[in-house]
Amino acid sequence: MSSTYGTLFKISTFGESHGSAIGVVIDGCPAGLAFDTDFIQHELDRRKPGQSRITTQRREADEFDVLSGVFEGHTQGTPIALIIRNTDQRSKDYGHISEQFRPSHADYTYQTKYGSRDYRGGGRSSARETAARVAAGAVAKLLLAQAGVQITAYVSQVGKLKLEKAYPELNLALAEENAVRCPDPETAEQMFQYIDGIRKQGDSIGGIVDCVVTGLPAGLGEPVFDKLHAELGKAMLSINAVKGFEYGSGFAGVEQLGSEHNDEFYTDESGRVRTKTNKSGGIQGGISNGEDIYFRTAFKPVATIMQDQDSVDVHGQPVTVSGKGRHDPCVVPRAVPIVEAMAALVLVDMYLRNKAAKV
Amino acid sequence: MSSTYGTLFKISTFGESHGSAIGVVIDGCPAGLAFDTDFIQHELDRRKPGQSRITTQRREADEFDVLSGVFEGHTQGTPIALIIRNTDQRSKDYGHISEQFRPSHADYTYQTKYGSRDYRGGGRSSARETAARVAAGAVAKLLLAQAGVQITAYVSQVGKLKLEKAYPELNLALAEENAVRCPDPETAEQMFQYIDGIRKQGDSIGGIVDCVVTGLPAGLGEPVFDKLHAELGKAMLSINAVKGFEYGSGFAGVEQLGSEHNDEFYTDESGRVRTKTNKSGGIQGGISNGEDIYFRTAFKPVATIMQDQDSVDVHGQPVTVSGKGRHDPCVVPRAVPIVEAMAALVLVDMYLRNKAAKV
Amino acid sequence: MSSTYGTLFKISTFGESHGSAIGVVIDGCPAGLAFDTDFIQHELDRRKPGQSRITTQRREADEFDVLSGVFEGHTQGTPIALIIRNTDQRSKDYGHISEQFRPSHADYTYQTKYGSRDYRGGGRSSARETAARVAAGAVAKLLLAQAGVQITAYVSQVGKLKLEKAYPELNLALAEENAVRCPDPETAEQMFQYIDGIRKQGDSIGGIVDCVVTGLPAGLGEPVFDKLHAELGKAMLSINAVKGFEYGSGFAGVEQLGSEHNDEFYTDESGRVRTKTNKSGGIQGGISNGEDIYFRTAFKPVATIMQDQDSVDVHGQPVTVSGKGRHDPCVVPRAVPIVEAMAALVLVDMYLRNKAAKV
Amino acid sequence: MSSTYGTLFKISTFGESHGSAIGVVIDGCPAGLAFDTDFIQHELDRRKPGQSRITTQRREADEFDVLSGVFEGHTQGTPIALIIRNTDQRSKDYGHISEQFRPSHADYTYQTKYGSRDYRGGGRSSARETAARVAAGAVAKLLLAQAGVQITAYVSQVGKLKLEKAYPELNLALAEENAVRCPDPETAEQMFQYIDGIRKQGDSIGGIVDCVVTGLPAGLGEPVFDKLHAELGKAMLSINAVKGFEYGSGFAGVEQLGSEHNDEFYTDESGRVRTKTNKSGGIQGGISNGEDIYFRTAFKPVATIMQDQDSVDVHGQPVTVSGKGRHDPCVVPRAVPIVEAMAALVLVDMYLRNKAAKV
């Protein structure tokens, strides 16, 4: 198990879906940051369940406590511990799933690796763990905001419904105004109805979250292994249900010629070196070049569905896993703040590491 | 700069394209492994330049020396240092590029981050560094082979030319029999001609490398941050020119319903728990489930082209970057052993880490 | 700030002396360990304040909650979060010390490094943080006990009062039977009276804690940098007030000839390779050799004294720091379980790392 | 095996005593440092064998090659690889020791941990490895010198011969003027004669190296685990033959009262906060306070002696280990540059990490 991420801004998350609490310790946050609890709560609220009828109806207030690291409203350079109590721990009988391996869940692999598992609501493998990431990511965002860096994610695809416009043509601020978090209101409405239909079928569907980073200075990223996009990719792929990551021209870029794909440099009016195009996605050789960073993260359909499925139990015997309870028919609306949080955690770590680049 | 990768099987690579040598130190290789130098050389030969007319004509023998860590033919548990002398260091005048920023290369970002750069052949940002990875990866492969694990990569796309069959329908052994490393001879030939045409135009083209891992036991991977696919993704994205990574159903999976996408479990004749389908790509919850792992890595067209391009110099003044010298018109044939090497490095580290999972 | 320790059994502590809670996240504890909460509480009780009149009269129950990582009485391989609420947070006026630098405390260095500090009871620099280490160390001890490893520390010196016998001549079980934790009852009584006299003077005194590890197999330790004694030394030196560490023959060993100091090998009746003497302290070349490990840790007199002292304030102006409140006149009796805990954390990490030593 | 040290300025050493080469990769050295090869060679020369008749007569030029990371005389932010060829690899018969466990060497523990060992001259456990540390430490010293930091070590004790004066009373520059590296010429001469006598007996003797760091700014060190003195302690204890470490008042400090031991603060004429005394050894709460840092490191007598000793072989059978060949009768004169090098490596890493302490 490795629930620790980061070199200088290091986070360690903990907690199971139906344990008493989840949380995170941030070890290495610089001192002197104004600790905006309202902002952190706002970020948690963006991720929490029950926001609309197309997200799970689990009831969690997701309010957090600060146990350490903040004094007189500011960070102290000491570890910041944040915890979120689990309030919706239904005292129900888990007997029916305690011995079953749900298809495409982590039940079988956890059981095999660790010899046992907390089967209540997925235990540690539940996406509930990402609330802790969002809390830590909010702190990272506060630091980045001081440096003028903004991170904005949004839903660009649900099933086969695709947002056809690229981010420069969109007003990203609109994404937060609908339940799907798609910045094109019309597409958002189509996606909403589509997801709601999936929900009524007791099924689930995948989607894609796009993310844009603006205001990032050139120089962030630590080649050769900790290239900026490699760390972003790892961070995104560590989120539950993610199956793919691409940045800049991504998979589509493989079909281009070098002469089409290369981003020529020029000097803008302010004397700053810029690129005419941005196929590079703001990263060259693993280091930010000062242009916008953009990347896409693919989420599979949620494994929990309200349908019967064949499976086996811990003894290898055939069983029918029956769908009941609450589920997210599509994870991407709630994944938007998670993607932003993980991006913030990567960027703030790189920001701090970059201070040691030159004599 | 972070040229170190791994938690227990830790590698540290070094060297610039036109310095005296490149190499790698492997810190944490278990003792007692038969050190097969022929196999390591064979892997390096698969990556080396000049293998056919569609790869760069740079002349490098890429022969390696073992400086430490091996005694009487076996690893000792001590650091293994491998170096490869750079033999093709043409004593030419680099004046024309020493002050220019080549489009979509790392010249500008290295200069900005570090305040200077070794401009000879791209210095540290050159893909020449990956020879050191291939050498270390070969050692990792030797360890994995003892545990019955096989890693096989191949070219599945060049530009718009796609291999339409999935890996179970292919004879992957055929990939090594042609210069493109595509296991379908007919498609391989088309790709070869296509790349050769690109080469004659002085241009470059992207492509995709697929990779399949067989024989891996269930239980490898360290959630929540070091999920097996997250580390594989980071490793692939750390390779020069990579723009995207997906595993299992990948980006296409987002269009599926949960009821289509879920992999139902069954028990096979030998009593082993298996999945009927493998959309999960052999990984569930970040941990291997014993099925084949497969993933895809997208490479952009190489930035070096034999054409004039607009750019700026280190003073911000406009310049024309003229293409000359030697280049790879398409990187994917030589990327195949690099993808395998990075996969091996991830898997062997996870293999060793997994030993501490249970009491 | 780095509050994270360990490579595989990784702990991250948090909390300030007068914040709402302190605690620890253990990331990497193997699954399947019976989680003995009584034992953990017992260890915390050994460290807690108010055990006798020669320790601080601060009132802390030091009861802990398990937030995660334990299910049905066993560890799950997932992060174990333990918190201890701070109950004795007197709502007093800290005005008198909020701007003063107490001599030989960390007030000045924290203020300089971080630009501010939590001045309440020393904040993060308070030894209260070590309760979290003791809780984590108790978990480590549970793991080691399964492998037959026992760790026993005791007080061997207070001021100039020295226990003249070495550990093989002592009944270490007696250490827990007196308030000083010295295994020789007569010396213990002398030490108690001496410390009590110091306490009445409002002064403090240093001391030495010895520690013995028995039952450890040969092979633990990771040279060349993570030698077993180097990690033990770092761990001990990371405890508040520690000024020195030695193992085996230690500082006294420098006066011996090699012919006196060398530990000759022999084979015992059971066929096990042993050493006739143990100047090496159970460690050779940084790796355990199967003999007892023993080491000594020196603690300075506690900086808090009930006397007036000259100092300066945050503005550099002269002030008189007046002693009031509660203090430990001698830290070593309560340091005994902390030394054991840190030793356990080092040993369990090495135990897990050693699993990857050989093919 | 862990031959990697450091968080940001990370070194990875490699090489066996009688392999083809030893060396080090420095990953994370900031760009822009003037790379003074003469200085690095000078430091290596201070450590090399054969400097006088009281050191081993092994013949090694210890000249180094720079394989990477330096361009046009400056570091590039890329990994710096330095290698030193082993020139004195006598093609002798090692048969007599290949199966014997030399007393108080690492033969038995390496054999047990790794299942085999390079028995030629101690293989990886040989102090020859420290040449790589000295080379890396010299680079660290170059960086620290730019910040005004000086590190000076010297011999303060050999056997029972002690230098009675503390460092402020000594002219440390004199240490390099004699073969013992003791700054008091008279004591140095006594030590020299004493060691020479030991040598003639074929025996060995221990000693102590003191080290003083001046010019270090306040603020370095990363509590709670990576306290400055904890990292210094680990670094010293990782050097071959070290048995103990103390800083500031050290072990002697335990006998003092708090009222004697506390360092009162005052503001000096320049407005800088200082301490009247320095029992703290320049470190409070694990962070440098701007005063001189001083610490002491104890070295046991070298295990290699020119006398017969009882032991066992790899089969557990009794053998007589006979002393022959070349040895250091006392290791401390050559340990002086090693102590300095390790201190430099710790300090430069802390210097870089401290850049991220505040917003």
UniProtKB/TrEMBL annotation, chains A, B, C, D:
Catalytic function, reaction form: 5-O-(1-carboxyvinyl)-3-phosphoshikimate = chorismate + phosphate
GO cellular component: cytosol
Cofactor(s) needed for function: FMNH2
Keyword Amino-acid biosynthesis belongs to the record: yes
GO biological process: amino acid biosynthetic process; aromatic amino acid family biosynthetic process; chorismate biosynthetic process
Enzyme Commission designation: 4.2.3.5
Cofactor binding notes: Reduced FMN (FMNH(2)).
Pathway entry: Metabolic intermediate biosynthesis; chorismate biosynthesis; chorismate from D-erythrose 4-phosphate and phosphoenolpyruvate: step 7/7
PANTHER family linked to this entry: CHORISMATE SYNTHASE
Family statement drawn from the similarity comment of this UniProt entry: Belongs to the chorismate synthase family.
Name recorded for this polypeptide: Chorismate synthase
